[in-house]
Write a structure and sequence with these properties.
Layout (H helix, E strand, L loop, with lengths): L3 E4 L4 H6 L2 E10 L28 E15 L2 E7 L2 E5 L5 E5 L5 E9 L1 H8 L9 E3 L4 H16 L4 H22 L6 H15 L7 H6 L5 H12 L3 H19 L4 H7 L5 H12 L3 H8 L2
Antiparallel strand pairs: 1-2, 2-7, 3-4, 3-5, 3-6, 3-7, 5-8
Helix pairs in contact: 3-4, 8-11
Length: 293
């Protein structure tokens, strides 16, 4: 996924909705890369490690890869590992950065309004302990991806739609904080990690050897456990994700077939159309026409 962020203009309509999103984004920071990036962000959001910053809204940050450190006026410095979410609260000083040797990948959403104020006042989340150990939760990743796509597509009424998605994210984060499974064995954790990584890499063909190295687990055992958990081989699971993503793009965007093939990791428009027809029984063009009737 390419780096992307947007700061939204908030009108009276959004404020009257009582729950509005102020910014969304995704960023990959490579090892030894300066952080945070100074370009493309408003002065209210730019900060340095030495000074930190104070914001005037709520934010949820999800670290999907790598690790780093977080500190706030209410919390001591803490190591942040992949799979960790942390909240930023209005008027509370904070700072965070990735480890220089690992870098990290982060998703974020900023939000505000009377409804978030009410949620936060009821102690569903705690400023003194703003961390949610979500792990590589595929449902959380899907919601952040939907959030980014909704902003990028900017369809009619998307401000209210992304407020709903953000509320789903908060609901999931709260559920995880209370009911997170402690009994899941190591093998299943690795399988769920692989499912997360496959969903994160829809724009690229599957490199199974590279995936195995990130787990680690022998291929035969991995394939057997993966199919037992999902009902599909890793290749078929990844292909289904890509085809489903293509269906979504066909329905919700004006991208042409070649662009959709590229965004879902297919080597050519012809190969994409061939596999799409095989999986769906209909061509991409006919699928778009049918779904828009």
């Amino acid at each position: 996924m390419k780096n992307y962020h947007k700061y939204l203009t908030i009108t009276k309509t959004e404020k009257d909705w009582s729950f509005y999103v102020t910014t969304v984004g995704y960023s990959h920071t490579s090892p030894n890369e300066p952080y945070p990036p100074q370009k493309g962000h408003p002065s209210t959001h730019v900060f340095t490690w030495d000074k930190g910053r104070i914001l005037n809204g709520y934010y949820l940050v999800f670290i999907s890869r790598g690790q780093g450190i977080f500190e706030s006026a209410l919390t001591a410095p803490r190591i942040i590992s992949e799979g960790t979410c942390f909240f930023l609260y209005p008027n509370i000083w904070h700072r965070y950065k990735p480890n220089i040797t690992t870098g990290w990948e982060e998703y974020w959403v900023g939000f505000n309004g009377p409804y978030p104020d009410d949620i936060m006042s009821k102690n569903f989340f705690n400023p003194q302990n703003p961390f949610i150990e979500a792990g590589l939760n595929e449902n959380l990743l899907v919601l952040f991806q939907r959030l980014l796509e909704s902003v990028q597509n900017a369809t009619l009424g998307y401000h209210q739609i992304i407020s709903g998605i953000t509320l789903e994210i908060l609901g999931l984060a709260h559920t995880i904080s209370i009911f997170k499974k402690q009994s899941e064995d190591g093998d299943m954790l690795l399988i769920h990690r692989s499912m997360f990584l496959l969903r994160e890499s829809l724009e690229s063909p599957l490199d199974i050897q590279k995936l195995i190295k990130k787990l680690p687990m022998g291929y035969s055992k991995f394939r057997k456990l993966f199919k037992s958990e999902t009902g599909y081989s890793p290749h078929q699971y990844h292909l289904n994700l890509r085809i489903n993503k293509a269906k979504e793009l066909l329905q919700t965007t004006e991208l042409n077939i070649k662009e959709i093939a590229y965004q879902t990791g297919f080597e050519s428009e012809f190969y994409f159309s061939k596999l799409f027809r095989k999986k769906s029984g209909i061509s991409p063009t006919d699928y778009r026409t049918k779904k828009r009737q």
